[in-house]
Amino acid sequence: MRKDRKRSQREDSSSSTTIIDRNHHKKHHHNNSSLPIPIPPTGKPSSSAFVSYLEIPNLNPKLKLLCEIIANTPSLSVEKVLDDTGIRVSQEDVEEVLKLSYGSPGPAVKFFRWSGIQLRDRHSPYAWNLVVDLLGKNKLFDAMWDAIKSMRKEGLLSLATFASVFSSYVGADRVDEAIMTFEVMDQYGCRRDTVALNSLISAICREGKTVKAREFLRLARELVRLDADTYAILLEGWENEGDAASARQTFAQMMSDIGWDPKNVPAYDSFLTTLVKAPDGMVEVLRFLETMKDRGCHPGVKFFKVALEECVRTGDGRSAKLLWETMIRINGLRPDTQMYNSVIALHGYLNDSDLALGLLDEMVFNGAFPDSQSYSILLRFLIKKKRVREASPVFAEMVKNEFVPDHEICSSAVKMYMDHGDTYMAIKVWKFMIENYKSDLEETGNTLVMGLREINRVPEAVKYAEDMIDRGIKLKSSTLSLLKQSLSKVGKGFLYDELLRKWKTR
After folding, report:
1. Which residues have C-beta within 8 Å of that of residue 240, sequence separation ≥ 6?
2. Which of 145, 186, 235, 464 is most buried, judging by how many CB atoms fall within 10 Å of its CB?
3. ∠ CA(370), CA(374), CA(380), 5° rounding?
4. Please, is 492 exposed, middle or buried when counting C-beta atoms within 10 Å of its C-beta (0-12, 13-18, 19+)?
């Protein structure tokens, strides 16, 4: 089967022209240029590099059968096998099958031809675009251009078609050919405008080739106007590559060309995100934020999220506070739960429990709701710092909201409460533990029993010792020995004898 698939791919590189041009297509009055074309992983094409019908749960049986035929039938036999099924297809069926057949380009194109006969050569523009993308992603560029020429005859070409070609060439490390494609777009009836330029630049930057994008823009700017999106794409490329020096140069050029623009949030996001990850970048970022505020501009949530995580990583509470204050003053920007968790963790690390607790209370007013991590971060900090009074309502609220504190938090809480004489909360947490955990309860259970005995609450100590034995939780012999001493002192040795009998039976 695998050999057939490889052979059919070789056959297709020479036969796709015939397959496509033999059809006589009817014109459509729309281009569907906004429809997305799936872009599979780039690099050396193989059937495993693309999304397969086998990965789609509950796929329509008809579509599944068509995909199976394409995946498992040599290219030369596909049309006969399809004829034998007696299946009828719609435009939508063809689109769905093509999206799942990138790993078998030869048979997929034969399926496209076969289905065209049923549809009286009325394939949708989207299906045509998928064929172009499928061939390009498999590096069958001659066949891809034959398909494009057929689309041009019928007026079906759109920017989506050329966006696919840009992506395929760049993914194959043929950036120069992607650029040449842009340069001949107008010969195919597609405008070589700013939107098309941005599509090309995006494809180049997406593959980590932002230097080449910048080099091309130095020439292209004489022919096509660069806009805010052009710079935002380039800055995102530098962000992905971690190139702060180049990001500064591009930002300066953007300021020279288009100036400050409150709507250019994506560009500011990428630029500041790149800076904040650079050595000593936080100082530069805070300076830029002040300049931006004076000009009515600001980055988006994306930047603040990354910046706050950087503050947590470096323990920089001062910068975190400045960033937080800047963010909450920006209309329309609201921190999410993850961001709250980051700053709660930071202030916990910096021993600022009042601020950490205040952030938990504030969350819901900004539309961010505490999750299990929010409570867990805060509880760990409060328990570590022995903040008994503050920990109790946080634990209660966490449980009320149906989140389960982890075993370590519960065990530490029981010990803390017993050490500080709060037996009510210690017992409450212990009961929660035995309801939610079935193992590793021995240490905490013995801690509770020993703590109750030490404060002369022996009957309760015996009660929880018996309950431990009944539940199969090991009661230590040292715990049992100390209970014996306490019971003997008050003349209740018989209770110890009963406890010992149960303990031995277990």
Report:
1. 205, 208, 210
2. 235
3. 150
4. middle
Residue 48's pLDDT is what? Answer: 53
Q: Tokens for 84, please give them.
A: 């034998």
Q: Give residues with Cβ within 8 angstroms of 320, minimum separation 6.
A: 308, 311, 312, 343, 346, 347
Instruction: Report in angstroms the alpha-carbon separations of 314 from 113, 114, 243, 269, 346.
Output: 60, 61, 21, 21, 9
288: CB partners within 8 A, 6+ apart: 271, 272, 275
Is 207 exposed, middle or buried (CB count within 10 Å of its CB: 0-12, 13-18, 19+)?
buried
Q: How many CB atoms lie within 10 A of CB 220?
A: 21
CA distance 414 to 324: 35
pLDDT at 99: 96
Tell me which DSSP letter residue 77 carries: G
Contact 166, 203 (CB under 8 A): yes
Note the pLDDT of residue 232: 97
Q: How deeply is 140 buried, as exposed, middle or buried, from its count of CB atoms within 10 A (0-12, 13-18, 19+)?
A: buried
How far is Cα 76 from Cα 15, in angstroms, rounded to an integer?
10
pLDDT for the residue 272: 97
Q: Which residue has the tokens 């043929």?
A: 174
Give the CA radius of gyration of the chain. 34
Contact 156, 28 (CB under 8 A): yes
Query: 7: which 2 tokens?
Result: 């052979």
Q: How far apart are CA 398 and CA 405, in angstroms?
A: 8
First to last CA, the chain: 62
Contact criterion met (CB below 8 Å) for 233 and 227: no
pLDDT digits (tens, 9 = 90+) for 274-301: 999 998 899 999 999 999 999 999 999 9
The whole-number pLDDT of residue 501 equals: 82
In the block, residue with structure tokens 């796929």 = 59
Using a pLDDT cut of 70, give the percent of the chain over it: 90
Angle CA 74–77–83, to nearest 5: 135
Written in H, E and C, the secondary structure of 133-146 is HHHHHCCCHHHHHH
Q: How many residues does the chain have?
A: 506
Positions in the chain whose pLDDT score sits under 50: 1-47
Residue pair 172/203 in contact (Cβ under 8 Å)? The answer is: no
pTM over 0.90: no
- Around 462, how many Cα atoms within 13 Å sit in the side-chain half-sphere? 20
Name the CA dihedral angle for 437, 443, 444, 450, rounded to a multiple of 10 degrees.
Answer: 150
Measured CA to CA, the distance from residue 499 to residue 493 in angstroms comes to 10
Residue with tokens 């999206």, as numbered in its chain = 99
Give the C-alpha distances (Å, rounded to integers) separating 144 from 12, 164, 326, 355. 11, 10, 51, 60
Degrees to nearest 5, angle at CA 442 with 439 and 445 = 115
